[in-house]
Amino acid sequence: MEGLPSGAGFTPAELHDLARPHNKYRHTMPSFGETIRNLRLQMNVPLRVVAAAVEIDSTLLSRFELGDRFPTPDQLVRFAEYFQLPLQEFSAQVIADRIIATYGAAEITARAVDLVKERLAEYEAQPAQHKPT
Fold it and tell me: How far is CA 19 from CA 2, 106, 107, in A?
């Protein structure tokens, strides 16, 4: 798979800055679709080239970029390899996008995310023998 030039990987903070559109009013992390579109445009690579590199068709890539569809775990791996970015960052973006697409960007969704954070913190604090498998 052909991707960025050698050494072009980014830290999560650099990904945040690179992937976001240059809009001084936007203060949130971009969606997965916005991220891959912004990276593709900054690299000046046509949609068809990225689509071929990650083994999908151009229409599906366009739908990912627009937020109309979500990639599979295998497709996420190929995007991470192509853009030489952390798979965990792409995966986290897709999970967040799915939550918002399913439940909306309402106050109750934000509260539910807070509950998940609290439960994860409790889970991490448990001794290993008490964690469910």
Answer: 20, 24, 26
Q: What is the C-alpha separation between 57 and 42, in angstroms, rounded?
A: 21
pLDDT digits (tens, 9 = 90+) for 95-124: 999 999 999 989 999 999 999 999 999 988
First to last CA, the chain: 35
Instruction: Provide the 8-state DSSP code for 15.
Output: H
Look at residues 120, 111, 50, 60 and name the one whose alpha carbon lies nearest to residue 92: 120
> What ranges in the chain are assigned the alpha helix state H?
12-19, 32-43, 47-53, 58-66, 73-83, 87-103, 107-125
**109 phi and psi angles, rounded to 5 deg:** -65, -45
Measured between alpha carbons, how far is 80 from 110 in angstroms, rounded to an integer? 27
| pTM as predicted | 0.74
